[in-house]
Amino acid sequence: MSKISLIIEREYLSRVRKKSFIIMSILGPVLFAAMMVVPAWLASMEDDEVKTIAVIDHTNLYSGQIENTELLKFDFLDEGSEEEVRTNFKESGYYAYLVIQDNLLENPEAIRLYSDAQITMDAKGYVQRSLRDHLKNQKLQTYEMEGLESILSEINQINIEIPTVKIGEDGSEKQSSAELTMFVSMAFAFLSYMFIFIYGTQVMRGVMEEKTSRIVEVIVSSVKPFQLMMGKILGIAMVALTQILLWVVLTILIVTGVKAAFFPDSEMPSGTQAQIEMMQDQNPEAAEQIASMEDGFNFNKILEMVNSLEPLKTLLLFIFYFFGGYLLYSALFAAVGGAIDHESDQQQFMLPVTIPIIISLYVAMMTFRNPGSDVAFWFSMIPFTSPIVMMARIPFDVPLWELLLSMALLIGGFIATTWFAGKIYRVGILMYGKKVDYKELWKWFRYSGD
Amino acid sequence: MAFLEASGIVKRFANHLALNDVNISVPENSIYGLLGPNGAGKTTLIRIINKITGPDEGTLMLDGKPLRSSDIMKIGYLPEERGLYKKMKVGEQAVYLARLKGLSRNDALKRLKYWFEKFEIQPWWDKKVEELSKGMAQKVQFIVTILHEPQLLIFDEPFSGFDPVNATLLKEEILELKQKGATIIFSTHNMASVEELCDHITLINNGKAMIEGRTEQIRRGYRQNLVNIEFSGQREEVEKILNDNFELRNLNSVKDHFEAQVKMTEGQSLNNVLSGIIGHCTIHSCQELLPGMNDVFIQVVNQKEQPSQNQKS
């Protein structure tokens, strides 16, 4: 046992001290933090210049119908001043001028917005929305209904948000958020996929390094090949954990640090808020939806939703499936590394190992839409795909028996692959300069002796 | 008593028999040579002794007790395919490998300091292995092999890749280790070093042990009754006598005397040769010529193939 821990220690330290690990550990959180902070920062940097737009309304129907905002002011000018504004536009100080030629209900194209610069989406969108609201009201008024004012104000207050409620097995109700659930399951599935791939490949490279540098025979004269393989796999697993931990901690530190430095008093505008503001100008309906979602994100509600995901259970399951999947695949990756002599040979053996991983990600994507489907069920049972697919299903509440069965199968699966990989690894690492094919691997697998 | 005794070792691979009933018996505190052409099964036997692979049949006894996994701490092994982690620092790596053999960190550091100074590679302690020359890396490897002071040392082709200076150093160290009480097995193609170092040998060919025994005895066993005689006097007379009664292989004049290589036929001895010529010349020296291990090696390896050919014809 002490020998395995020696190997784990070496594998861990030699990787954690690498420059690439340190760079990744710093770069990752910087990128994550940038993803959260930059949209907010951009939003706060939005130009606060007040633009004034001249309105020349030949119909006199719309004067005063476009309200000034903080950044957009409207000057309603006389009919006759169009010529003057046009010729002296540069000196006039106007950002743009709007010309309305005709009744817009009858002739919606009789309107133009002129400027010497490209007119921003904000300005155009705002004018468009203001006029559209006004025209809608005008049209309604032509029906001469009674009490229209109050009807309109009532109509404008209609809003709907459907809270989703998950019924527990004991009949208890928990408020859940479909958006949050989906986001969490997607994040888990993708995280498992990424780490199995990155760190599984690292195991393979490590084995190949030992084989090509010819140190492996020196080491297996002190420890059993299986100990060497497991030591490497576990050591690299700890590197993966360290990386995740560093990313989480550093991201939180950077985000809170930036918040304290740049938004000391006010609440920092979140990325979603900035997105809502941007969307409002282009697609008011979508923006409203997000805004309502955002409204729902007051602290207590979030807490309730997160609780509906049972964070402790989810985290424990994530750790279990992550490790199960990692152990299962890294054993196979170790066998591949042991079997080949040159990097150029790895393709033919890598493919059968990577295909199930990629398939699981596809199935996981489908699972978000239909977590109870047969496909999702079966792929969350097969040990080769369950680490990723089951993670995608967990936020949608999986029956206990399915979970237990899947976990048992995964444990069995990784014991079987580790045993299988160990047999190939043991022979492969001491085999030099031999062209290896699947027939050869099968022979190695069947060698007797320990 | 034999320190290491392997009896009836059989190892089968998928389509050939790597070792076919091999017995070796390595006396304590001796140097034991394992010879044989490439692919004869030497490395397989060595791996079995090191518990890297297991035999299909046969038993291994170390110091009178069956060899167990924990015994590999008593063994130091320098494999033929050897290397170090390229990206790791020399000192750190040496400590790591020593600890894998069961030394504590402090013991490892203490002993490494002694050996690094002895081999004058102390300044390289903090360098990465990839910066080392091949010779220096081999010194590091040798140190790591013997650091835990194993009772049994196994060197597989220790001289391959060593330059003459380091090879000499290695030879001296091997002899010193023997003096300190270690038992050493080594496999090599370098027959000169076998004659020089090995007390006993086994020659393996095609998975079978062809000959085993004390090096001198084996060489004597393969002697061809050749004697070398230095004399001065009447060359023609001597030449005639030797040609008539024996087989004269060679006769040269060297400086102020002559040298003759004579092959005696069955039943003749050096005494017959000397009494034949003693009245015709002055004899300065005479010596029986033992075949070199090289000759023995070639003879044994070829011998095996001849009988099978005879059987067919």
From TrEMBL, chain A:
Residues 19-421 form the ABC-2 type transporter transmembrane domain. Keywords: Cell membrane, Membrane, Transmembrane, Transmembrane helix. One of its GO terms (molecular function) is ABC-type transporter activity. The chain crosses the membrane at residues 21-42, 180-201, 233-258, 315-337, 349-369, 403-422. It comes from the Bacteria. It holds the Pfam family ABC2_membrane_3. It is a multi-pass membrane protein. It is found in: Cell membrane. InterPro entries: ABC-2_transporter_component (IPR051449), ABC2_TM (IPR013525). PANTHER family: MEMBRANE COMPONENT OF ABC TRANSPORTER YHHJ-RELATED, MULTIDRUG ABC TRANSPORTER PERMEASE YBHS-RELATED. This is ABC-2 type transport system permease protein. It comes from Marinilabilia salmonicolor.
